[in-house]
Write a structure and sequence with these properties.
The complex is a heterodimer of chains A (104) and B (398). Chain A is mainly beta and 104 residues long. Chain A is built from no helices and nine strands. Chain A has a four-stranded antiparallel sheet, with no helix packed on it. Chain A has a three-stranded antiparallel sheet with strand order 6-7-9, with no helix packed on it. In chain A, strands 3-4 form a two-stranded antiparallel sheet. With 398 residues, chain B is of the alpha/beta class. In chain B, 36% of the residues lie in helices and 17% in strands. In chain B, α1 (30-37) crosses α5 (112-131) and α6 crosses α13. Classes of the chains: A mainly beta (104), B alpha/beta (398).
């Protein structure tokens, strides 16, 4: 099964897909692991899980490890700073207080 | 189509601009330098300088390399009078390069107004002489081009950075020297990068430079990663690194250089921007312009700047070509962007096509073309404290 054309697979080894366009909560996407409904908005160029990822498993993008899952991640779930971390230095990020949930 | 025009300098290098640099040698002389340059801000007079009062060999070398950069035609040094910067050595180096040079010492001239008056009179005279200078033909093989990314997001590594890499591959095939940098944004890529070195000894040096960066940033407690990178979809420094690495293209890596080292011939070079030794002066580069100034000090005639979130900066001395990776950002900020690489994400262009567009834009800068940031008057500049040891013998294989 192939993935949704709104998502990019950068390398066949990857366990994440990149959003080519903004996706809305409630939309159904196809990751290749079966259809799934998004539980949140996915902004341009953010990542979703291509398949189920176990806690402690490496996140692979461009065919290379870009960090490790800090919890179990379901297919089509947003993969970002809330459920993965760096193997090198912690990621510094700010929550935008002017907008709740929406992404720029 | 590929012949440019350049200003021939005494060391054989050629410049694509003929700028007067007004250089302050301590923050206390900054205002006077900026005021001197102000009437010509649209016409090729740029203020650069070093704010510190304590001596620093790195900063003195950076200033010398910038004041004798091929894009610079004349130099006015502005000293307060009591700072530690060796103004005598800098003036001597600029004079030895064949460029007109003058030093104004504010404490001797009689203060702010008198210094601005004297400085402007000299600049006016130099500007007239420089405007009358003839250019000579210049080939792509005589170019040095740098690349940097800033305000990166999840699109940078998919569109803008690989497109800049394709432009690098084309320029290198034509004989140009191309420089990529920020070893702190190559963390996680060191092994695949080392495999591209022209000798195994150089490969070891490349890996060591990234290991040094990882150690340096770990001590500081932050990676080379800003809050906006995460908002734009980048989750870790490794992810940002994989995207940043794509700027280097696919050519073999010919050498490892440090700030102020000019590539000895065409090819691809990694610029090691992280200081040697113990962590001493804080973050290696406190913002994008600190990196741009270092690329220019290595002789870069222009700098390719890939941005996803949307940077607006330019630079003193050398033009900055802004490549926008994110199609949404481009639509919001097109006045600041030279290249719309986000077309790749939307399937409206391919990487090779945008790579060729970038290469042609670089060449056009030597044919009278100007970048968006030049048109908008951007001439940011920053230089801070660092310390480096000399290059090891394996860094520049013959």
């Amino acid at each position: 099964m192939t993935h949704d054309p709104r998502l990019i697979l950068l390398d066949p080894r990857d366990n994440v897909l990149v959003a080519r366009v903004r996706l809305k909560a409630g939309e159904t996407i196809e990751t290749g692991a079966g259809p799934a409904t998004l539980d949140r908005d996915i902004a341009l160029a953010h990542k979703v899980a291509r398949r189920a990822i176990a806690a402690g498993e490496k996140i692979l993008k461009y065919g290379a490890p870009i960090g490790v899952a800090t919890e179990a991640i379901a297919p089509a779930a947003h993969v970002h700073v809330h459920n993965m971390r760096s193997d090198y230095t912690p990621t510094y990020h700010l929550e935008d207080e002017r907008k709740a949930g929406a992404s720029a | 189509m590929s012949t440019m025009r350049g200003y021939l300098r005494s060391d054989g290098r050629k410049g694509i601009r003929n700028t007067v640099a007004v250089a302050y040698l301590v923050e206390c002389a900054h205002h006077v330098a900026v005021e001197i340059a102000l009437p010509w801000r649209e016409e090729g007079v740029h203020a650069i300088g070093f704010p510190g009062c304590y001596p620093n060999p790195y900063a003195e070398r950076m200033m010398e390399q910038l004041c004798t950069h091929p894009n610079v035609g004349a130099v006015l040094l502005v000293s307060l009078g009591c700072e530690s910067f060796n103004k005598y050595a800098l003036e001597r180096a600029v004079r030895a390069s064949g460029r007109p040079v003058k030093t104004i010492i504010i404490q001797g001239t009689g203060g702010t107004r008198a210094s601005i008056r004297e400085g402007r009179a000299w600049v006016e005279e130099q500007r007239k002489l420089l405007d009358a200078e003839e250019t000579v033909p210049m080939a792509v093989s005589e170019l040095v081009v740098g690349t940097v990314c800033g305000g990166s997001d999840g699109t940078s590594g998919i569109t803008g950075n690989p497109a800049a890499g394709r432009a690098f591959d084309q320029l290198i095939a034509e004989g140009a020297a191309c420089i990529f940098e920020e070893t702190g944004e190559l963390i996680g890529c060191e092994h695949i990068m080392a495999a591209r070195a022209i000798t195994s000894e150089l490969g070891i040096e490349l890996e060591k430079s990234v290991a040094k960066a990882a150690r340096y940033y770990a001590t500081l407690g932050y990676g080379s990663f800003a809050a906006g990178n995460a908002e734009g979809g980048l989750s870790t420094i490794e992810e940002k690194s994989m995207g940043a690495y794509a700027k280097s293209g696919a050519s073999p890596i010919s050498g490892l250089i440090k700030p102020g080292d000019v590539p000895p011939h065409g090819g691809l070079y990694l610029l090691d921007v992280v200081p040697d030794g113990e962590v001493r002066f804080g973050f290696p580069n406190i913002n994008d312009n600190a990196e741009i100034a270092e690329l220019i000090a290595c002789g870069a005639h222009c700098v390719l700047f890939v941005t996803g979130r949307g940077s607006v900066v330019g630079s003193a001395i050398s033009p900055v070509v802004k490549i926008c990776a994110n199609p949404e950002t481009y639509r919001r900020m097109s006045e600041d962007m030279d290249v719309d690489a986000g077309r790749i994400l939307e399937g409206r262009a391919g990487l090779d096509e945008v790579g060729t567009e970038i290469r042609d834009l670089v060449v056009s800068l030597g044919q009278g073309g100007r970048t968006k940031s030049e048109e908008l008057g951007h001439q940011e500049f920053i230089l801070t404290y660092k310390s480096f040891e000399p290059l090891g013998p394996a860094c520049l294989p013959a």
